[in-house]
Write a structure and sequence with these properties.
6 strands, single chain, 136 residues, Barwin-like endoglucanases
């Protein structure tokens, strides 16, 4: 009985919760990154709804992606790490068809932060679920 208790304690201490990031294989690519806000001037008459129908409001780590990336690698809800930013972002919106190889980082209502970000080439890492059966 004592050996079973010791084994159980050791098992509990050795169990580590898998981090969200560890559930993905991370691929990299270079894209042009801009930023946008929830304003009718930058979006449409309903700036708090994404093209996919998700509600969007300040504090969410969302990005919009160009249609070419959406059709190839950055599917809806794909987690994305962006060079120069600490958080993980999620593909929740799409951009106008005129843009290619581009992401647009959601910055809530902070227009100054979006302007400060500007437009730059960055490396992103996007997550592909390890348990995915889909092969590219």
């Amino acid at each position: 009985m004592r050996i079973a208790a010791v084994f159980l304690v050791l098992l509990l201490f050795n169990c580590k919760e898998e981090r969200f990031e560890d559930k993905f294989n991370w691929e990299s690519m270079i894209v042009t990154a801009t930023a946008y806000n929830s304003t009718t001037r930058q979006t449409n008459s309903n700036p708090h709804i994404t093209a996919f129908g998700d509600s969007i409001f300040p504090g969410l780590n969302y990005i919009a992606v160009s249609n070419d990336l959406l059709k190839s690698r950055l599917k809806y809800n794909t987690p994305v790490k962006i060079e120069g930013l600490d958080s993980i972002y999620f593909v929740k919106d799409r951009m106008h068809s005129r843009w290619k190889n581009r992401i647009d980082i959601y910055m809530g209502l902070n227009v100054d932060a979006a302007k400060k970000w500007g437009r730059k080439k960055v490396t992103i890492l996007y997550g592909i679920p390890k348990d995915s059966t889909i092969k590219e």
